[in-house]
Design brief:
12 helices; single chain; binds pyridoxal-5'-phosphate; Aspartate Aminotransferase, domain 2; 3-stranded antiparallel sheet; globular; Aspartate Aminotransferase, domain 1; 7-stranded mixed sheet; 13% strand
Length: 371
């Protein structure tokens, strides 16, 4: 007799990965897909960082570090932030990726029933983690240009609002918020005493001038940044955050009982990463952004992306899911907008791919838009 599977906690019913899974199931049937679905850089970790990680392993940096992260790395991060912001009066916490930081932040601040304001479209993890913890995501529609409007945020605030999540440069739209937009959002947060969680993991990927940060605008910002995307080290699981001292303290306590610490040898190598110039990759990604935007804008409605490595065109015919299944049948892997949004009218293209792949993708997508 078959054994019954172990029961899962009720909270598992609040999260769902079926949308993206369907695309990957379809994709598994393709022999040579034109893959424009991957949310990570196609370049590898800089050689000097690899050497530093190997050296650190050989030298015995294989044990737990202190929970808040290796002191030398924290100081290197603090110094880079002082250079950017002029001064820094926050402790630094090294996390297991920005994902780790998000989980700790939500656990530390969201009570069941608390509302979290999330501009829609959004990075998938926000919705599912908030739901998992028993919070209530409140989505603010930013279609069709994906700009951040203070009035729309203000209209979403209720007595239960506790947090506002900002992500710029953004996944999945590639939009970069202006300093004015961020100021407007911060003013709403200040008026209603909200914590702003600013996910700036793509801050290096800004193509039309530096991406403004929410950090200097308000004293209740938790700023999250990472190493995954800038240095092609998504598997190394490294991120960091700064914010109000009592919040960083609570997150450190939680990290002690969950992740314990970020991977030790990679923390050593992250110091080297901070000294590495990533501008060559950024220039390459800017050229890719131009190539794909110029290649598609004649036939697709697209808000021009200023950063990250995504764009979010409207689906011809109006259904993201329907268009994506046609695209996948034609050999192009993209993701339906409903995975990142409460509406399914768009689709996500990730252009962390070589020139040939992008050119083939443009050709097939344009053909689909015509037919
Ligand atoms: C907006 C955003 N935040 C956070 C993450 C998670 O990154 P990390 O590898 O640092 O956990 C991603 C990864 O795709 C992302 O797109």
């Amino acid at each position: 007799m078959a054994e019954s599977p172990p029961p899962l906690a009720e909270r598992m019913q609040r999260i769902d990965a079926s949308g993206i899974r369907k695309v990957f199931d379809l994709a598994a049937k393709l022999a040579d897909p034109i893959n424009l679905s991957i949310g990570q850089p196609d370049f590898d970790v800089p050689q000097v960082c690899k050497e530093r990680a190997i050296e650190a392993i050989r030298a015995g940096a294989n044990r737990y570090t202190v929970t808040q992260g290796d002191a030398a790395l924290r100081e290197a991060v603090a110094e880079s932030l002082r250079q950017e912001f002029g001064s820094l009066d926050s402790p630094v916490l090294i996390t297991s990726g920005v994902s780790g930081g998000l989980l700790l932040a939500f656990l530390a601040t969201i009570n069941p029933g608390d509302e979290v304001i999330i501009p829609d479209p959004y990075f998938v993890m926000y919705k599912h983690l908030v739901n998992l913890i028993g919070g209530v995501p409140v989505f603010v529609d930013t279609y069709p240009d994906f700009r951040l409007r203070a009035e729309a945020l203000e209209a979403a605030v209720t007595r239960r609002s506790r947090m506002l999540i900002l992500n710029s440069p953004a996944n999945p739209t590639g939009v970069v918020y202006t300093a004015d937009e961020l100021r407007g959002a911060s003013d709403v947060a200040r008026r209603h005493n909200l914590l702003v969680v600013s996910d700036e993991i793509y801050n290096a990927f800004a193509y039309d001038g530096p991406a403004p940060s929410a950090w200097p605008l308000y004293d209740r910002v938790l700023l999250l940044r990472g190493f995954s995307k800038t240095y092609g080290m998504t598997g190394w699981r490294l991120g960091y955050c700064i914010g109000p001292e009592h919040l960083i303290g609570a997150m450190t306590t939680l990290q002690q009982y969950t992740f314990v610490c970020a991977p030790a040898p990679f923390q050593a190598a992250a110091i080297t990463a901070l000294e590495t110039d990533a501008s060559e990759h950024i220039d390459l990604f800017r050229r890719r952004r131009d190539l794909i935007y110029d290649g598609l804008r004649g036939r697709f409605n697209i808000a021009k992306p200023g950063g990250a490595f995504y764009m979010f065109p409207e689906a011809p015919g109006g259904s993201g899911t329907e268009f994506v299944s046609r695209a996948v049948e034609a050999g192009v892997l993209v993701i339906p907008g409903g995975v990142f949004s409460e509406s399914d009218s768009h689709f996500r293209i990730a252009y962390a791919a070589d020139r040939e792949t992008i050119e083939r993708g443009i050709e097939v997508l344009n053909r689909l838009a015509d037919g």
